[in-house]
Amino acid sequence: MIYIKNVHFATINALLTRIVKCEHCGTVFIYFMEVEAEGSADSPYFLTEKSAKKSAAHHARVRMNSLVEKCFLSIPCPSCFLYQKYMFKAVRDVENTSVTLGFGGLLVGGVLAIGLRILYGLTNAEWIWYLAIATFAVFTLPFLYYGSHAAKRLIHFDPNDMPESHRKKIAGEQAVEKSLFEKSVHTMHEEEFTLYVSELTDNYDGHAPHFDVPFWIDETMLENDVMVDICLPTGEFVEIEIERGELEGKKYRFRRVVNNHKIVFCCILRTYTQTQRRLDQI
Predict the structure, then answer these.
(1) Is 127 helix (H, G, I), strand (E, B) or coil?
(2) Which of 149, 172, 195 is the last residue in one of the domains?
(3) Is the pTM of this model over 0.85?
(4) What is the DSSP letter of 279?
(5) CA 169, CA 4: separation in Å to the nearest integer?
(6) What is the pLDDT of residue 117?
(7) Is residue 269 part of a domain?
(8) Domain span at residue 232?
(9) In-domain check, residue 79
């Protein structure tokens, strides 16, 4: 009997806004992280196409939830330029990858040298034998010396001992203090809205123009009903009631008249997320 199946795949992409409170200086900073989750499910003999599609999507969501809880990037604090303790292992693994590859190359060289001895030893070419000994010694001694230091580094490596200029560069490129981020977002909204209004015409085709205003809150705030104040690009503060467990992407609309134009502001919910870890994972 021939078994035939149709495999369905589902992919979910998300841009996470990670929030971190520095354990060294107390600065709260954020960074962005792109994640992708995939799921799959089989439809035997094409008999369960609909349910297989749903199962694939479900598996992708489960995988995404796991990534949201556990994945993170190793980025220094943009204020004190120090890594958090839970980031050490990830940075250590990256730093030692090149070292490990180098030592592996030395070991391979030693093995090749022995291979030369075995291959040419049968021909009584003594100069090959001496060359093999010398080559093996040249490869082996550095391997033993640097290998011991690499082992110590692997155990005791502290990424905060790296040059501050290196850590500062990484932090400057990938992280920003939460207060500066929110201020820059508001400034950007004001500038974009000013340009947006200047280009508006009276021809709306029966629909008032929309202007998106993303705003961020801590994900823990969604554990209960909460009221938040959001500043619109016009400088007006509006109060938004967010229900417990609300999903990211929820839109809250406010109709206003600006320069004789009816405009709908769409305040879009975004969340700051934290990596959840057990202590034995650090």
Answers:
(1) helix
(2) 172
(3) no
(4) G
(5) 54
(6) 54
(7) yes
(8) 178-273
(9) no
